[in-house]
């Protein structure tokens, strides 16, 4: 009964229990190591982004410090900072305006006009640019007219827009539409002109029809230039909108800025300018984010 085989048979369950009890205690010691490895890998992959964010934050801080010093000491060196409001004065104006429903109404109306005008321009300019880039006859018919109208600045369209449309709201949206229409159209045309003809011939050899070639070859190849045009068009749309609101508008962030100048409220002028810049930046970032979703092959 006390043979070595029997002793080993009795000890095996106890050894298995000891191993089972030791295994969970060993797992927590490996978790910090795995977490550190994942964190180190994430840091290496995002090092460039973190560096760009850090440099951008430092540049903004440096800009604010320079702005504060120039306005505090009323520097006059070709450019006069005697009447320019300080960052603290602008911040005080912001704290008051953020609780003012009228200021929020100005911002909301400007955003609504941008959405309507820019969306309409994108819906019209992108398909038109694709068709003009694909069919030579349509290009020859429309391109000369667009080239004549394209150099006309948005502010020159204000009197004509007032005559064309029955309300100021419609005329402002029309001017915003014109400002973003031509950059989108030109960049879409440029993208169509750079499509590799080898891809088109390969699709035809595989039996693709015109609609399939248009959908599977021309449109994906032109998407980077289309989103470049959308980004540029958004910036021009804000420029056009602010000009229209300053001249013919009664509401909007452009009207708010011009009214602040008329009432000699210098901090509100700077606040309106900063609001325009922030809104334009957010709009461009949104377009770039949509572009990364639509074009996953362009990610690094």
Write structural notes for this entry.
The chain contains 11 helices and 2 strands. By secondary structure, it is mostly helical. It has 2 domains: about 60 residues, no CATH class; about 210 residues, Orthogonal Bundle (MetI-like fold), CATH 1.10.3720.10. Strands 1-2 form a two-stranded antiparallel ribbon. Strand 1 and strand 2 form a beta hairpin. Helix 4 packs across helix 10, helix 7 packs antiparallel against helix 9 and helix 10 runs antiparallel to helix 11. About 25% of the residues are buried. About 5% of the residues have low confidence. It is found in: Cell membrane.
Dominant shape: flat
Intertermini distance:
71 Å
What structural class do the secondary elements suggest?
A: mainly alpha
Global Rg? 31 Å
Number of continuous helical runs: 11
Mean pLDDT: 86
Strand order of the largest sheet: 1-2
Question: Order of helices and strands, N to C?
Answer: HHEEHHHHHHHHH
List the helices and strands and how they pair.
Elements: H1 4-45, H2 47-72, E1 76-77, E2 79-80, H3 87-97, H4 101-134, H5 136-149, H6 158-164, H7 168-193, H8 197-205, H9 210-248, H10 253-262, H11 266-294
Antiparallel strand pairs: 1-2
Helix pairs in contact: 3-11, 4-5, 4-7, 4-9, 4-10, 6-7, 7-9, 8-9, 9-10, 9-11, 10-11
């Amino acid at each position: 009964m006390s043979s070595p085989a029997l002793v080993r048979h009795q000890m095996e369950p106890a050894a298995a229990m000891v191993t089972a009890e030791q295994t969970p205690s060993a797992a927590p010691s490996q978790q910090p190591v795995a977490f550190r490895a994942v964190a180190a890998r994430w840091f290496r992959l995002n090092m460039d982004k973190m560096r760009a964010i850090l440099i951008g934050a430092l540049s903004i801080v440096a800009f604010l410090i320079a702005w504060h010093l120039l306005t505090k000491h009323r520097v006059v060196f070709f450019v006069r900072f005697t009447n320019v409001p300080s960052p603290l004065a602008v911040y005080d104006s912001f704290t008051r305006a953020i609780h003012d429903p009228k200021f929020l109404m100005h911002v909301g109306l400007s955003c609504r006009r941008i959405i309507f005008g820019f969306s309409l321009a994108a819906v019209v300019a992108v398909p038109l640019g694709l068709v003009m880039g694909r069919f030579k006859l349509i290009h020859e018919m429309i391109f000369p007219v667009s080239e004549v109208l394209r150099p006309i600045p948005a502010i020159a369209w204000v009197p004509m827009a007032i005559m064309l449309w029955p309300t100021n709201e419609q005329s402002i949206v029309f001017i915003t539409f014109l400002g973003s229409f031509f950059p989108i159209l030109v960049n879409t045309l440029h993208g169509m002109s750079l499509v590799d003809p080898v891809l088109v011939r390969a699709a035809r050899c595989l039996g693709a029809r015109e609609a399939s070639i248009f959908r599977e070859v021309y449109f994906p190849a032109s998407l980077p230039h289309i989103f470049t045009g959308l980004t540029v068009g958004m910036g021009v749309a804000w420029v056009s909108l602010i000009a229209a609101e300053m001249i013919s508008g009664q509401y909007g962030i452009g009207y708010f800025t011009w009214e602040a100048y008329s009432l000699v409220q210098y901090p509100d002028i700077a606040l309106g300018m900063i609001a325009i810049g922030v809104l334009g930046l957010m709009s461009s970032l949104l377009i770039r984010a949509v572009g990364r979703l639509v074009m996953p092959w362009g990610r690094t």
